[in-house]
Each structure stands twice: as structure tokens, then as C-alpha cells.
Amino acid sequence: MKDKQALLDGLAQAVTILTEFVATIPADKLDVRRGDGFWTIKEHVSHLADVQPMLLERLQRFAAEASPEFVPFIPDDDDEADSGPPNMPTDTALKQFADFRRQQLDLLKTTDERTWQKTATHPEYAQYAFYILVRHILMHDHWHMYRMEELWLTRDEFLTELQ
């Protein structure tokens, strides 16, 4: 865990990176759907905001529980969820992302080494631990930001089709 401080710094910087990045995208490009099964840029931003409460709750559970057991987070499986990704106003999504990230960082900065090394059970993953979750949060942020940039700037013939 030599990269713990780098992970914390990256999580903190993601707020500025995302906010500044989205500000550079013309408003008329935020809701463009590049093809069947593709999310819009706005939906990616909304998704990043939408998952932050769940991620905070997982971090809190790691801190509070001896051996946490998690279930996959699949929003479309929620009986009350509309089909498709969330689609909140971009300003609202960016604010929610920043607010929950601040709460996550407050918790992470006070988390003891024992919790950082704690493992858990998660059916989706061969290994799951507090440290892995923290790293996963950062990688998830950047994957979606990369995808937004790709959706905005990549020409159709070079656009990655996700399966």
C-alpha cells in the first residue's frame, strides 16, 4: 500500500478534473447519443454522481463491520429504477459528485491501517478489500472520464463499441 497517499490525492483531484473537463464540452454535445447502447456524456456524469452514495456506504461498512459482505451494485435491477442510466442535470450531478467525494475523503483520511487491510466478500470479484475498493473508485472515475472524452472527440469509425 505504498500508493495510499497517491490514491487519496487522485480521488481529491478527480473532482476538479471532472468539473473542468465537463466545462470544456459544448452544452449541445452533452446529450448526444452516439449509437444504440451508448450512454451520453451527461449520463456518464450522472452515473458518476449516482454511485457515490453507494461507495461511501461501502467505505463506512468496511470501517464498521468485521467481515462485510457486499452484493453487486446493478442499478437496472432496482424495481423502482427507470431503465437506462441516470440522467440528472449536469450541475446537480457535479455537485453531488463533489459533496460525496468530500465525505469519502474525510472518512479515508481518518481510517486506520487495520481497516485499510480489511478484506470482504463480494460475489463479483475474486478478491475484495478496502484498499481494492479505494483504488477501484479512482479507476472507475477515470474510466468514465475517458469514455466521455472518447464520446465527445472520437470520430465514428474509431469509437470503441462496448459489449
Instruction: State the fourth-level CATH superfamily.
Output: dinb family like domain
For the biggest sheet, the summary is:
none
**Order of helix and strand elements from N to C terminus:** HHHHH
Q: How many structural units, i.e. domains?
A: 1
CATH architecture: Up-down Bundle
Number of strands: 0
What does this protein structure show overall?
With 163 residues, the chain is an all-alpha fold. The protein has a single domain (4-157), classed as Four Helix Bundle (Hemerythrin (Met), subunit A) (Up-down Bundle), CATH 1.20.120. 57% of the residues lie in helices and 0% in strands. The protein contains 5 helices and no strands. The protein has helices spanning 4-24, 41-64, 90-109, 113-116, 130-153. Helix 2 packs antiparallel against helix 5 (130-153). It is globular. The two termini are 33 Å apart. The mean pLDDT is 93.
